[in-house]
Design brief:
By secondary structure, the protein is α/β, with parallel strands linked by helices. It is built from 14 helices and seven strands.
């Protein structure tokens, strides 16, 4: 991606008013710099080496190689990293006493994170990553032998393996829809999904951004077509949150899972699973808690034993 396009996208996030207390990764770096140099235009920023040196200064980048990986994780800004280290030291000194306090501290950013993702703070659970969130739905969605799951041929390999295991375990049928070529109209995918749906189709898995090509797939249009036929939709947004505008309500899907340590630049091993309220309690949790979750229903899916609470508590930095 050219610098101009990178800035256009991240600058667009700023224009949407998302620079707030939730400022991980590249957002934090650009936010301060933009305030200092707001008189310059996009073209000037895109070609301004001094500007990009300032952005680079917000990260503890390696000096012996150039890291261009944004597919797995993104570099953590110094602000987020220092907050995580501080909380890790605090937690490790007295975990029994401070684990719960750090958990309660996540309340400080939950509403803003919900706003960023276009949902309600009571409709999502914090996860270790998108993989855990996707597994929660793919393992827990109620299916019986003969029911069908649709996937595209651009899904992340680990998620395909989960679906195939579900097929072996429960006798469900997996059907694959081909994503059209780069030269084709992306809405061709909508029609292909429509044609693939039968009376037995219960769940569709689709990536917002292709794990193979980086293409942005028409998830809102596909979701509308699937839900009109009674099919629940699970969106893998691992590669879109933080780079694209992702709004759960606007997409209209039933479930959306993402990692916060990729384009958003949050602490490593942080993520989110969003779920429409009508599915809560019907989808089996991976790790059911032993307490009543009626007051906070998504706690049913957030519990997974001891996790890296210092990372979760640092999401809002």
């Amino acid at each position: 991606m050219e610098r101009r396009e990178f800035f256009r996208r991240t600058g667009g996030v700023a224009a949407l008013g998302l620079w707030g207390s939730l400022l991980p990764g590249s957002a934090a770096a650009l936010g301060d710099v933009l305030q200092a140099e707001s008189q310059s235009g996009v073209a000037e920023f895109a070609s301004d080496d001094a500007f990009w040196r300032k952005v680079r200064g917000y990260y503890a980048v390696p000096t012996d190689f150039l890291d261009l990986d944004h597919a797995n994780t993104s570099p953590t800004s110094s602000t987020v990293l220092e907050a995580f280290i501080r909380r890790s030291k605090d937690l490790s000194g007295a975990p029994a006493e401070r684990y719960g306090k750090q958990l309660m501290g996540t309340a400080s950013f939950r509403a803003e994170l919900a706003k960023l993702l276009g949902t309600n703070e009571n409709h999502y659970a914090l996860m270790q990553n998108a993989t855990v969130g996707l597994n929660t739905v793919l393992h827990g969605f109620p299916l019986k032998a003969g029911d069908e799951i649709l996937v595209t041929n651009h899904e992340y390999p680990d998620m395909v393996e989960v679906v195939l295991q579900r097929a072996k375990r429960d006798g469900v049928v997996v059907k694959t829809v081909e994503v059209p070529g780069v030269e084709d109209d992306k809405l061709v995918l909508v029609e292909r999904v429509r044609k693939a749906i039968t009376a037995k189709t219960k769940l569709l898995l689709i990536s917002h951004v292709s794990a193979w090509s980086g293409e942005v797939l028409p998830v809102a249009e596909v979701t509308k077509a699937a839900r009109e036929r009674g099919v629940a939709v699970l969106v893998d947004a691992a590669q879109s949150v933080g780079m694209l505008h992702v709004n759960f309500e606007a997409i209209g899907c039933d479930f959306l899972a993402t990692s916060l340590h990729k384009w958003l630049g949050g602490p490593i091993a942080t993520g989110v699973l969003i779920m429409k309220p009508e599915h809560v309690g019907k989808v089996w949790p991976l790790h059911p808690p032993s307490w009543d979750t009626s007051q906070y229903p998504m706690d049913l899916y957030e519990w997974s034993g001891s996790i890296n609470m210092a990372a979760n508590a640092s999401i809002g930095e």
